[in-house]
Amino acid sequence: MKTKKFTILHSNDIHGDFLAEVKDGKGNLIGGLSLLSGYINKVRQEEENVLYIISGDMVQGSLIDLEYKGISTMEIMNYLAPDVVSLGNHELDYGLPHLLFLEKIANFPLVNANLYVKKYNKRLMTPYIIINKAGFDFLFTGIITDKVIASIKQDELIGSFISLEEASNEVGKITNAYKNDDIDLTVLLTHIGFESDIELAKMLKPEWGVDMIIGGHSHTVLEEPKKVNDILIAQAGVGSDQIGRFDLTVDDDTNSIVDYKWKLIPIDSSIAEPDRRLQEYIDSFKDAVDKKYNTILCKLAKKLTHPRREVETTLGNLVADAFAYAAQSDVVLVGSGSIRVEEIGPLVTLKDFKACFPYDDFLNRYATSGKKLKKIFSYIMRNENMDGEGECYQVNEGMEAVYDTVGDSLQSLKVKGEPVDDDKLYTVCVQGYHFNNSADYLGISNEELLEAGKHKVITTSAQEVLEEYLRNNQNISRELEGRLVYK
């Protein structure tokens, strides 16, 4: 038996989390890419055979990333020098042509097996890579499902095998064609969420020889990997505050893992020295952004928070109310995921605002019946949508939706204090992204939303609407009011 030890470090959903912060009350710096790089450098020096991989969503989530449209992120990631990276849904936020430009900047391979140029039936990205380490061959391939389709839905050239069943077949294509007796370890990099990883693992045929799924998207924090269908599944939360670490023993004769240990390693100043050169490079971007955006936008009466996207939040209430004011709409549905910070205020700079609400989009108003409105709320508040992977919403003042979690059904729905009438028309305002994906995210088709024939584009820039609202409404506040109630 010929065996060898390897260390696989893995991150996911870094989301432009470049800077260390003091969070523990003891003055220790936590997270940030210079500390993360310091730890990776340390492990590379201490261990003989190290691989560092990232399972999607390097970009979006910080003002630095937004200002440079991901270019800064790719340049900074070149310092970290990952061995392989898979696509996440946010890699497409700046558009498909820009993604292909970012790929050229990267000094590391970006793999994905199931994004296709439909007309020519050709894969968009490199579908797999084989990395030789210490005489052992590691095969990496990447999968992403319906979340990326939402980002590029209007690009008719691009398609994907988006269901889990179809994604599993793409994995089979890669392993059938390229996994030979020399492949010692097969690793599937996904960006579909932890629960979907479990379902995918059940579908993979043992003959395909997938040993590990290292995933992202659901920001799941684990105490230990889950083993399904003899496949190890792991994920490493979100941001740069931690990193996953596998220490493996791999058998060359059986092409299998014979022993492993896994830990979620907290990244702080007690575990590694910061990478000073990387910190200087990050600071060069930070200084330029600070000069441009460090002006005061407004003062709130108190700090507003957005700790969980699945429930009503004070910050979510403020954003929804601002859009309702602009749209003069009965109902406003704001995607909770478009609010990218957990808290803001009382003092709000332009920099804080851009970090809080980085996505710009149209606001669209539709008229729909009360019956369809109940259908929408029944769908977005259903139990299945509360698993950390669903698309959830914040709503405006005057809304009161009560959901029975035991019966998994909408108990009541009121607009401006009155029960919703099935036959009455109500105006509903949503972001363009959510209209484009209304069947998946709202449980109602575009045709159903447009059926009453009263569609209007309220603004081409939701971000500008929110900025002006804050600038012209000082010392405002919001409370939790029971707009969304789960019983």
What is the fold's blueprint, element by element?
Blueprint (H helix, E strand, L loop, with lengths): L2 E9 L9 E2 L6 E2 L2 H14 L3 E6 L7 H5 L3 H10 L3 E3 L9 H10 L4 E2 L3 E3 L4 E2 L4 E6 L2 E8 L2 H6 L6 E3 L3 H15 L4 E8 L3 H10 L8 E3 L11 E3 L2 E4 L7 E10 L4 E11 L9 H18 L2 E4 L4 E2 L8 H14 L3 E5 L7 E2 L2 E3 H7 L6 E7 H11 L12 E3 L3 E6 L4 E7 L2 E2 L5 E7 H5 L1 H4 L4 H5 L5 E4 L2 H10 L12 E3 L1
Parallel strand pairs: 1-4, 4-5, 5-6, 10-12, 12-13, 13-15, 20-28, 25-30
Antiparallel strand pairs: 1-16, 2-3, 7-8, 7-11, 9-10, 14-15, 16-17, 18-22, 19-21, 20-24, 23-28, 23-29, 25-26, 26-27
Helix pairs in contact: 6-7, 9-15
Tell me the CATH architecture of the largest domain: 4-Layer Sandwich
Count of extended strands = 30
The CATH superfamily of the largest domain is identified as: Metallo-dependent phosphatases
List the total number of helices: 15
Structural class: alpha/beta
The major beta sheet can be summarized as: 6 strands, mixed
**Rg estimate, integer Å:** 23 Å
Shape: globular
Q: What CATH first level of the largest domain would be assigned?
A: Alpha Beta
Mean pLDDT: 90
Proportion in helices: 25-40%
Uncertain regions spanning at least 5 consecutive residues: none
The name of the CATH topology of the largest domain is Purple Acid Phosphatase, chain A, domain 2
